[in-house]
């Protein structure tokens, strides 16, 4: 189990340390932005491969599994994960991960009233669902640490955005977009076109994950 722990810890360090503005800024100044982004992308890919290999080679130590009934947990929960990630990436968001950073003078999107970190919430939920379904020590290590990275990333993202936006602007936005507010879920039905684009992308992503899980991961995600 030690190789898996080491691989996951290195993965987390590689995604936590460069998140520091001082470290990231120093690397960009030394390497240049294009070289930094290319090197970081390559490093991330290599670390993903390392983690995947270490996970597959880890001995199976059952904790609350195997239980085929628990395979329903990710099957039923992953549509929510796909929605949070896809809709989060296409929603304008000055507070967290997205493909569309600026909100300008527009009203706070309904999705962000549910959570200002929809992508990170989705990744944390992905980890939790798979940890429950697998029920073994290796999965507890892998998905537990990955989920912790996603949850810890919310705090790190808040610090970075507060610094870049200014304390007053950040607080005004954060007051409208808490970390998690399930009472705002009904407002999603009044979302604009971008949210429904995210829903369509989430449906496609879910279908791809179901179809590619066994060929790529080696295990069928279906409980039958």
Q: Summed up, what is this model?
A:
It contains nine helices and no strands.
Write up this protein.
The protein is mainly α and 224 residues long. It starts with a helix and ends in a 7-residue tail after the last helix. The chain has 9 helices and no strands. The chain has 2 domains: 1-58; 61-217, no CATH class. It is found in: Membrane.
Present the secondary structure layout.
Layout: H1 2-16, H2 21-31, H3 33-57, H4 72-90, H5 110-114, H6 118-134, H7 137-165, H8 167-176, H9 193-217
> Shape, please?
globular
User: For the CA atoms, what is the radius of gyration?
Assistant: 19 Å
Structural class: mainly alpha
Order of helices and strands: HHHHHHHHH
Number of strands: 0
Q: Please outline the major beta sheet.
A: none
| Mean model confidence by pLDDT | 89
Q: Number of DSSP helices?
A: 9
Q: What descriptive keywords fit this protein?
A:
224 residues, mainly alpha, 2 domains, 70% helix
């Amino acid at each position: 189990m030690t190789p898996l722990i080491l691989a996951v810890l290195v993965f987390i360090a590689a995604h936590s340390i460069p998140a520091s503005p001082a470290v990231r800024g120093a690397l960009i100044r030394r390497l240049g932005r294009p070289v930094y982004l290319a090197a970081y992308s390559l490093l991330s890919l290599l670390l993903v491969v390392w983690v995947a290999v270490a996970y597959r080679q880890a001995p199976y130590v059952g904790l609350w599994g195997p239980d085929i009934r628990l395979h329903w947990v990710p099957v039923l929960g992953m549509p929510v994960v796909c929605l949070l990630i896809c809709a989060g990436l296409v929603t304008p968001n000055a507070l967290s991960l997205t493909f569309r950073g600026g909100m300008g003078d527009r009203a706070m999107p309904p999705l962000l009233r549910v959570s200002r970190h929809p992508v990170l919430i989705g990744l944390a939920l992905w980890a939790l669902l798979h940890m429950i379904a697998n029920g073994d020590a290796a999965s507890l290590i892998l998905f537990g640490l990955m989920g912790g990275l996603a949850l810890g990333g919310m705090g790190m993202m808040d610090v970075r955005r507060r610094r870049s936006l200014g304390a007053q602007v950040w607080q005004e936005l954060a007051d409208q977009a808490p970390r998690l507010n399930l009472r705002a879920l009904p407002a999603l039905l009044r979302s604009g076109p971008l949210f429904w684009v995210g829903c369509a992308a989430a449906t496609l992503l879910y279908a791809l994950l179901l179809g590619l899980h066994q060929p790529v991961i080696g295990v069928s995600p279906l409980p039958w």
